[in-house]
Structures are given as C-alpha cells and as structure tokens.
Automatic annotation (TrEMBL):
One of its GO terms (molecular function) is magnesium ion binding. This is Mandelate racemase/muconate lactonizing protein. PANTHER family: ENOLASE SUPERFAMILY, MANDELATE RACEMASE (PTHR13794), MITOCHONDRIAL ENOLASE SUPERFAMILY MEMBER 1 (PTHR13794:SF58). Its cofactor is Mg(2+). Keywords: Magnesium, Metal-binding. Residues 172-269 form the Mandelate racemase/muconate lactonizing enzyme C-terminal domain. SUPFAM superfamilies: Enolase C-terminal domain-like (SSF51604), Enolase N-terminal domain-like (SSF54826). Residues 132-154 are annotated as: Disordered. One of its GO terms (biological process) is carbohydrate catabolic process. It holds the Pfam family MR_MLE_C. Gene3D superfamilies: Enolase-like C-terminal domain, Enolase-like, N-terminal domain.
Length: 392
C-alpha cells in the first residue's frame, strides 16, 4: 500500500450563536467552520478544522491546495507545504490562503503521527530534538517568563478559559459572577473581552480581580479595537492599574511599533498575535519589543509546519506562548514545548450550550481537563473526529 494522498475532502459548517457576540469592531452572529479530511492510499485519515471568518476557505483548499497534494507522498509534510505555497506564490504568501494551507498541513501531521503510532505531541517533542513534554520538560515547579508552571512530562498544558464577553444587557456584577465561577474550577488564566464603556470595564475588572484565587490571572481581550496606540492608552488609563496577566490584541498585530508603545507606556503586559497569517509579523513584533505573550493561531498561520518556527523564535526571545482556539489541535503543540504554553478553551458544558463558540457540536476529541490543565490524547495522531452528520 502507498502513503500517497488519495483525497482531500472539505466541508463548510455554519453554527448559529444563541445571541450576537460583539468583539471589538466585529459582530459575530454565527461561527462558520471549514473541516478537512485527508485520506491516504493506505487507509489513514488526518483531520483538521478552522474558523472561516466568512472567507471561502473550502474553495481555496479545493482550488489552491488539493491539486498540488493528491497523488503525492503524505510523509513529506514540509515538502508538500513548500510546494503548495510555491505553486500559489502570487496569492498564498499570507492572508486567508494560509488558512486553507493550514488545514491540509495539520491533517498531514495527523497522518504522520498516526503512521508513527504515537500522539502528535510526542512526535513533535521528538521532532524538536527531545525538548518539552516527551523529554520531561523543566523541573517540577519551574516557571517560564512572568510565571506559569513548566510543561509536564505527561503531555499536558495549562488551560486558559475564555470566561465571558460583556454585553449591554448584563451588569458588571453579572459578568464577574460568570468569570469567577469558571475560575473556581481550577483554571489559572481566565479571559474577558473589553467592555466599550470604560467605567463598566473598570468595575468589571475590579470585581473579578477581587474574587480571583491567588494563582489565577485575568486576561483582557480587546479584539484589535483601537486604531492606534494613542487611542488604546487613553482608554486603558481609565481602567486603573489592575494586575492583568496581559492585555490582548489592542491593535492589529501588523502595527508592531504601536504595540511596542502600548507595552512600554501602558501598565500591562502585552499579548498579541490572534489571526496572524505571516510568521514575519511575529518577527517584527519581537524585534520591536512588543510582546510578553505571543498569541499563536496554528491554522491561520499555515499549520504545524510554520508554527514550529514561530515557537522556536518565541523560545529564543523568552516570551510566553498562548494558543488561539482549536484546543484539540493546539494542545499537541503546547504539550511538546519545554516552557508553559497556554491553550484556550470555550466551556462546552454551559447549560443550554456555549454562547461564544459551539465548535464542540462539530468536533469530538476535546482533551480532558485535569486540575486546570489540558491532557493531550495518547491516541496516535490528533485523536480528532468530526460529527459526520454535520460534515458532509
């Protein structure tokens, strides 16, 4: 039997939210996903999924990626990645095309780990030269930059709970109660999004910080809402100086100088990088001194293959890493790192369904949580499965 790629199948699935979600200047009424399955001639199937952000990701996979991988070896993952990008060099250097490439790349890494008979996190730890979880990580109790426990030898990673998004119909007390309920379940990081009313945001932060366990930090996600550093600094000055773990995505990540100014002149550590599609953007942020926490979206940046280079750069710079969504995938990269790397989640156990991200309706294979840490699957590959009724 051959390891050649026989088929790349992609489906687009839209799942409505129970109420609109406001994040920065964006309003989200549904979450749309692209789900890809790559099948080889010898019967292995790798899977990956991503948010489309309403872009035609399925069409991009079918037109830009599939023609250049079908019939070729699934084992040479990095070579497939390079060939696809070079074949589409006019349009696939950055942007939404990287999401399409990322879907197939992640699925091929899933296949590679399945063929090796090991979970992806263990394969990645070996691929990185024995660093991280498979080699035992740092000593117990060791810390990375600005705190956090080191990667454990059992293939686990600390979990960050996306706890609440403020809405005009809920008081800061209501939102704070939701956040603190999540923090009480053992998470060491919880996240809220910015309230556009600075007075309400200050009250919300104060209520949360007052009730958080001592080992739990608060993250404030701003969703690229401000146009420049001046706007950002003027508004966050009205929040007081609470002990945030980090301020997230105040500006678009391409504004490295603006982000560096906010980090330098503002009161909070800075985390930036959601939706970055070009690794050079991270290089510019690091060179500008703009990061305490590098936010990495494995699918948006083009998959596991380019993510490994981004992670190496973060290690060299001594900054923390926090992965953006897709915990079933992200936990494998996080668990292979020698320093702690946060893996965020939306709570799938909310009564009536999670109002922020219903991905659990599409994807099976959530890693289990243990004492506020994700524990990666021990099954070969990603251990990922789709709801086949939705993915057709």
């Amino acid at each position: 039997m051959s390891d050649a790629i026989r088929e790349v199948r992609v489906a687009t699935v839209a799942l409505p939210l129970p109420r609109p979600l406001k994040l920065g200047s964006m309003e989200i009424v549904a979450r749309e996903y692209a789900a890809a399955t790559v099948t080889t001639e010898d019967g292995l199937s790798g899977r990956a999924y991503c948010l489309t952000r309403n872009a035609p990701v399925q069409a991009l996979v079918e037109r830009l990626v599939t023609p250049h991988v079908v019939g070729r070896s699934s084992a040479a993952v990095e070579q497939r990645w390079d060939e696809v990008q070079r074949a589409n060099v006019a349009v696939a250097r950055s942007g939404v095309a990287m999401r399409a490439l990322g879907l197939v790349d992640v699925a091929l890494w899933d296949v590679r780990a399945q063929r090796a008979g090991v979970p992806l996190w263990r394969l990645l730890a070996e691929h990185e030269g024995g660093a991280g979880a498979a080699a035992g990580g740092d000593s117990p109790g060791a810390t990375g930059p600005r705190g956090g426990s080191a990667a454990a030898p059992d293939g686990s990673a600390p979990a960050l709970l996306v706890a609440a998004y403020p809405t005009p119909d809920r008081t800061p007390a209501d939102v704070a109660a939701e956040v603190l309920a999540g923090a009480g379940r053992g998470f060491r990081r919880v996240k809220i999004s910015r309230d556009p009313d600075p007075a309400r945001m200050r009250e919300l932060i104060e209520r949360i910080v007052a009730g958080l366990p001592g080992d739990c930090g608060l993250v404030a996600d701003c969703g690229f809402v401000w146009r420049d550093a001046e706007q950002a600094l003027a508004e966050i000055a009205q929040w007081g100086e609470p002990p945030l773990a980090w301020l997230e995505d105040p500006l678009v990540p391409e504004d490295a100088d603006g982000c560096a100014r906010i980090r330098r002149d503002g009161p909070f550590p800075l985390g930036v990088g959601d939706e970055v599609t070009e690794p050079r953007t991270y290089a510019a942020l690091l060179d500008a001194g703009a990061l305490d926490v590098l936010r990495l979206d494995v699918l948006a940046v083009g998959g596991v293959t380019p993510s490994l280079g981004v992670l190496a750069r973060a290690r060299d710079a001594g900054v923390e890493v926090s992965f953006h969504v897709y915990p079933e995938i992200s936990v494998h990269l996080a668990a292979a790192q020698p320093r702690p790397a946060w893996v965020e989640l939306f709570d799938a156990e909310v009564p009536g369904g999670n109002p922020y991200d219903p991905a659990h309706l599409l994807v099976a294979g959530d890693p289990p949580l243990r004492d506020g840490r994700w524990v990666a699957s021990d099954r070969p590959g990603l251990g990922l499965a789709f709801d086949e009724e939705r993915v057709r």
